[in-house]
Amino acid sequence: MPPLPPPSQRILTLKTIAFLGLGTMGSPMAVNLCRAGHTVYGWNRSDGRTGPLLAAGGRASMSIREAIRDVDVVITMLPDAPQVEEVAYGPAGILANARPGALLIDMSTIAPQNSINLASNAAKQGIRVLDAPVAGGEAGAIEGVLSIMVGGETDDFEDAKPVFEALGRTITHCGSHGLGQTVKAANQLILAINIQACAEAVIFLEKSGVNLEAALDVLGGGLAGSNVLTRKRTNFLDRDYTPSFTMALHHKDMGIVTDTARAIGAAIPLGSIAAQLVASAVTRGDAALDHSALLRGVELLSGYDHE
Questions:
Q1: In principle, which of 146, 235, 244, 287 could form an S-S bond with 168, CB 3.0–4.6 Å?
Q2: What is the pTM assigned to this prediction?
Q3: Which residues are known catalytic residues?
Q4: Cβ contacts of residue 193 below 8 Å, gap of 6+?
């Protein structure tokens, strides 16, 4: 691998970006990178997703090879490890076609060990890697206020800061490869338990005859207040489950949580119950709904028909 230029010089060159995965989260993220002055080449596994990027001044690529061949940074934002590995490995993938010294930032949510493996394999090709999953949902992606938890080398993290600053507000280097994903798993653990607790409180209040809107107002102003209660308030009040983050994706994430906890010997009794409730929702047919639809499960268990 040829020597890299000093970090102070490399930071100035991170202006051309390939963004692979223009879904619910990836599309607004790619748009925000364009608005920050980066040249962005977008690619998506399915057609019809490049419109917002093109409108923001970005460019569409027909293949991974075309998107990444001349860029400084490659960002992946994909559903799970199989999709990340599909675009990373093989003769048409990132590792075979990115230029030496390029920085691969995987912003997907995958298992920590998958991130460690990717970094190890990429290093053999002279490609640097950061795992940088995000929290904040679709609204955070659109507003550019995501929380970004990063695993990898310190110098690479410093190089990537101009990229991260176009996407998020809270940007934290969590440690070595895989630890960004570990923190994201903890985020999803807390989130699932919090949504379930809010859902149970909603049914508790409604079945007691309390005005739900007034109750949520006062709860939001006390110690029970949370971002979940604020952001999912309308979902709970209106039973609106238009997805900003689907139950299916949270189900995948809770699998990462439970598998990782088992591997390291961490007890997560509430997390295990939350994982089962999310799995139950997916099995019932709620996979495509917003994860606030955990409320539907509480309604069923309570024999409660909101209508």
A1: 146
A2: 0.91
A3: 184
A4: 270, 271, 274
